Amino acid sequence: MKQAVARLAPVLPLLTDLGTRFTQAGHELALVGGPVRDAFLDRTPPDLDFTTSASPDETEAILREWGTATWDMGRDFGTIGARRRVDGVETTVEVTTYRADAYDGVTRKPIVAFGESLEVDLVRRDFTVNAMALRLPSLEFVDPYGGLDDLREGVLRTPSTPEVSFGDDPLRMMRAVRFVAQLGLVPAPEVYAAMQEMASSLEIVSAERIRDELVKLLLAPHPRAGLELLTRSGLAAYVLPELPALQLEIDEHHRHKDVYEHSLIVLEQAIAMEGPAGGPEESVPGPDLVLRLAALLHDIGKPPTRRFEDGGGVSFHHHEVVGAKMTAKRLKALRFDKDTVKAVSRLVELHLRFHGYGDGQWTDSAVRRYVTDAGPLLQRLHRLTRADSTTRNVRKAQRLARTYDELEARIENLLEQESLAAVRPELDGNEIAAVLGITPGPVLGRAYKYLLSVRLDEGPIGPKAAADRLRVWWADQPESRADA
Fold first, then answer.
1. Who's near 86: CB < 8 A, 6+ residues apart?
2. How far is the C-alpha of 48 from the C-alpha of 92, rounded, in Å?
3. Contacts of 271 (CB under 8 A, 6+ apart)
4. Number of helices and strands (H, E) in the chain?
5. In the chain, % of residues over pLDDT 70
6. What are phi and psi of 362, to 5 degrees?
7. Which residue, among 225, 177, 170, 178, has the nearest Cα to 199 in the 3D structure?
8. Residues 30 and 51 sit within 8 Å (Cβ to Cβ)
9. Cα separation of 130 and 355, whole Å?
């Protein structure tokens, strides 16, 4: 307990101040949930969550005197937020009235009922490790459901029965998966059994809420453990069905690798290649959601493209193209933003491009196209491509690494010579129109693409030469003959 309080030392003055204000007004206040759990794990709590016997109106009145601003986080749900700035340091808190929620089981909207005690409030929480509290300002530890013992044992249990807890909010099953990846906790047998039995109830949870939990899982220190539980429990079938679909039946001669296991290894290897948080962009600072999603999903096009060839071979022709479309469809269904959908699906589409490099036969033109096709995703593509090598053949692995080292060196050399990151034709749209005597429209677009291909194939040739090449191209176009 002393160690946990020591971890809270930086915020103890705040806890004491707020606790005193609420008790002097005749109310109870407690620090609850994640901050208490993290203190026992010797982690610095990222947020401070409070619960109180005060009504939302009473809470707002107290916080208005304490802070410089208050706002309604969800008055109907009992939550009031406040902010205070002292000596240039800004502190934000959220205080929620004791709750005794129930759900209608259909719309997922809670039927809000305010509770009468801290113990009643704690029993409605997802897991016992999150059902611990510190009364304020006394710092009395409250643990009616054995959360501290479960935390020591590394076990996830629910304050009420798992069936009741998950029935109240099925998203709690996703939180269980996330806590496996974040904190290394393991579901108790009865919790795991309930997850298997109730997995289909995730269908009534909004895609946005599921997405948010999936993101937290992927950005956790050990996402593989969580993803394995997601698959084993059956939850993945309602969240990311493409993941269990990777568990292809391996033929008796082992002519192709276990795609599911391979994808998890690629994810781990990609994570190992992330740079430190806050590092330069070239290092792909971690945790990087786009890279991790691409690593996990890069081969989801293999199951629908698998073919057993004559002679015993197995092929997955164009699985990168199919996989890119599948990736975009799944991420859109999970309500990911457009930029993330575009970036991840593009990486999936490009992840095999390097294998056409062979022993370095690519021309400078092909290297330019590799760079320009990747665009701002180049550093992530480097890492995804390297992570995609999971062969146990040491010589093959070393050869692939050397070959990619050579490709990266060529890219760096070209980048020094040319501004490939922003490669453009050597004539802009207005100049093209002037040379050809045409107006903006589809023909101008075709001319622009032609000059871009010249730029990629040959590098800089100068505006005059570009104009000459453009005139030669134009002479073969039907529009030029129509004008004649």
1. none
2. 8
3. 223, 286, 287, 292, 295
4. 24, 13
5. 93
6. -60, 140
7. 170
8. yes
9. 48
**Length reported for the chain:** 484
Distance CA 328, CA 214 (A): 16
Sheet holding 79-86, edge to edge: 69-74, 79-86, 89-97, 49-52, 29-32, 133-136, 140-142
Q: Are 367 and 353 in contact (CB under 8 A)?
A: no
The span from the CA of 368 to the CA of 36, in Å, is 53
Residue 256 CB neighbour total at 10 angstroms: 17
Task: Burial-class residue 331 by CB neighbours within 10 Å (0-12, 13-18, 19+).
Answer: buried
Distance of CA 417 to CAs 288, 375, 405, 423, 458, Å? 30, 17, 19, 12, 13
DSSP code of residue 73: E
| Residue 201 C-alpha from the chain's centroid | 23
Largest CA distance in the chain: 92
Any residues with CB less than 8 A from the CB of 182 and at least 6 apart, and which?
Answer: 216, 217, 220, 221, 222, 226
Collapsing DSSP to helix, strand or coil, 419 comes out as coil
CB-based contacts of 391, cutoff 8 Å, min separation 6? 397, 400
In terms of phi and psi (left: phi > 0; alpha: psi -120 to 50; beta: otherwise), the region of 88 is left
Q: Is residue 257 over pLDDT 80?
A: no
Half-sphere exposure for 413 (CA within 13 Å, toward CB): 8
**CA-to-CA distance for 113 and 351, rounded, in angstroms?**
52
Among candidate residues 210, 206, 156, 164, the one with its CA nearest the CA of residue 181: 156
Strand pairing of 110-111 and 307-308?
A: unpaired
CA–CA separation, 339 and 289 (whole Å) = 12
pTM metric for this prediction: 0.83
For 411, the token pair is 């890219």
Residue where the block lists tokens 């330019």: 368
Is residue 475 packed enough to be buried (19+ CB in 10 Å), middle (13-18) or exposed (0-12)? Answer: exposed
Burial class (CB in 10 A: 0-12, 13-18, 19+), 373: middle
Lookup: tokens for 448 = 């622009």
Measured distance CA(432)–CA(447) in Å, rounded: 7
Pair of tokens at residue 200: 């289909």
Radius of gyration (C-alpha) of the chain in whole angstroms: 29
- 79-121 pLDDT, tens digit each: 999 998 877 778 889 999 998 755 555 555 556 667 789 998 9
Structure tokens at 314: 């197995």
Cβ of 278: how many Cβ atoms within 10 Å? 7
* pLDDT tens readout for residues 397-435: 888 888 888 888 888 888 777 665 567 788 898 999 998
- For residue 260, what is the DSSP state? H
